[in-house]
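Worked example 3. Consider a protein that binds malonyl-coenzyme A.
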Amino acid sequence: MNIHARFEAAFLRAADTPALLCPGREDWSYGRLVEETERLARALDERQVGAGDRVLVQVEKTPEAVALYLACLKTGAVYVPINTAYTKPEVEYFIDDCEPALLVVDSDFETHVSVATLDGGRGTLLASPSRDLPAAKSVSRADDDLAAIIYSSGTTGRSKGAMLTHANLLSNAETLCAAWGWRDDDVLLHALPIFHVHGLFVALHCAFQNATPVVFHAGFDAEAIIRDLPRSTVVMGVPTFYTRLVNEPAFDAAACAHMRLFISGSAPLTEQAFGAFEERTGFRILERYGMSETLMNTSNPLDGERVAGTVGFALPGVDVRIADEAGSPVPTGEVGTIEVRGPNVFKGYWRMPERTAEEFRGDGFFVTGDLGTMDAEGRITIVGRDKDLVISGGYNVYPKEVETLIDEIPEVVESAVIGVPHADFGEGVVAVVVARGRVDDELVSAHLKDRLARYKQPKRVIRVDDLPRNAMGKVQKNVLRQKYADILS
Ligand code: MLC
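Given these inputs, the predicted complex is written out as structure tokens:
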């Protein structure tokens, strides 16, 4: 089953229903979304991009970008979206790794693969006619055919592409619509980026399964959100959205009177943020837990107690266990690694069979690398990570990638990159550096500017004489995190 066929059937039944309501731009109905998808599907055909070919996409969030995603699904091409913040060298890595048949970008990009844009200018995919032509059928896809590759940075510094199938996407969309009681009169207020699973699959698919309207913001702007709450019923966001909203005096229970549900994910929602939101609005944010490799695994209940600081229960059809290093379940309440199995779990890492084998157990469970506990009722709490990872404003940053680049600076002897508390982003990136000459924020920032996405760059650089090490010689990042806990506050 091609997931696009499912969406398209819903879209055609709701052709006059608003699909993407875009402040400052023309709204698109579901009928229009079908037409534009068709236009882009034809443009892909004309360029001989077809089933199984990768389409690497680095574009701003627009309705056309959504249509391109749908056109890739429809033609069986594999959609590979990447963060618009990535610099040219970062994009080049993805080109080399996924070998796209087509790269779609917003502006000129010199490379050896075909390049197109969505801007209506030269090389645009939007030039193909679409209207008045009968729609082609979605290319038939087997359950385990790839729909998308989502890159996550790797612990070794190399990004890994998580291969997601049509069946992964479809099963998770159905599960989430049921778990969150998606209604025909729901209107999703969407301010997340659409190059990650949260904004692209979790959020859009709930609306697309039901062909319900999406208020489509190009980015997060608290005032714009507050303006659009009266015509919306559901918001999905990262914790930063909710802490920023609570900082707005105009955000209160009256502003939320039309709302049904606020959902949070991608980063831990603190009990304090949960409490402040409830106090201000009367709403208890529904926190859920997932990742690129598995889509969504657990959720607090729609009906029933949403407990702050927990991520709720395994979603129907998803097996979650808390295991020791050998993969055996630990006793109730004890800390272990969260492992997941189910139709939502990805097929493996793109062209990395050894890495894939390392992260799956023989019985099919995927080892997430997150540490958690499960109580007697099955409620799960995440208590930490066994991988060196910083989550900043919902974006994952792998210290190794940042350290490798900082260590290229001639004056730098070694560096340790850590995450410390940050009022807005939850965690902020800090670099602790041992150097032979003068090394400061400016020098590091100048070196990283064209090499590393801005959100991965250190918010502060601290110069030290030595890094703390344990008896094995390993840098003690926990010591650094404690020492510099207040540096960004
Ligand atoms: C922006 N900046 C960040 C940052 N976002 N720095 C660290 N972490 C971030 N997340 C930088 C900018 O480059 C800028 O740098 C400065 O911070 C201020 O920018 P801003 O204008 O305030 O940022 P804004 O555009 O408002 O973005 C903040 C944000 C955004 C929280 C809205 O980061 C965001 O949309 N995050 C969502 C990420 C997401 O979708 N994650 C889902 C992953 S999927 P300077 O210095 O130039 O001023 C996943 C699975 C799952 O994890 O379960 O969901």
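Take a moment to read the result before moving on. The first strand starts at residue 18 and ends at 21. The CA atoms of residues 274 and 308 lie 6 Å apart.
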